[in-house]
Amino acid sequence: MAEPRQPDSPQTDGVPIEDRPMEVEAPRRAASARLAVEAGVGADAELREAMDPANQSLADALRLSYRVLQFVIVALLALFLVSGFQRVDESQSGVMLRFGRIVEVENQRALAPGLRRNLLPYPAGEFVIFDVGGRSVDLATTFFPVLPPNLSLDQAIERASTKGTLQAGQVGYVLTDDGDMAHLKVAGTYEIVDPVKFVERLDIGDADRTVTLALDRAVVASAAGRVLQDLIEQPETVRDLIRISAQELLDTIDCGIRITDVQLLDAKPPFAIVKVYRELQNAREEARREIVNAGQQATETLIETAGTGWRDLAELIGRYQRAEDLGDTVRGTELLGQINTLLESDAVDGAVADMISRAKSHESRIELTLGREAQRFLDLLPSYRAQPYLVCKRLWLEAVSDVLDNKDIEIIRVPENLGTINIAISGSEEIARIRREELLKRRQRQGMIDALRGYERYRTRTSDWELGESNPLLEIGPDGKIRAKGARR
Question: Which fold has domain 135-269?
Answer without folding.
Answer: Tetrahydropterin Synthase; Chain A (3.30.479)
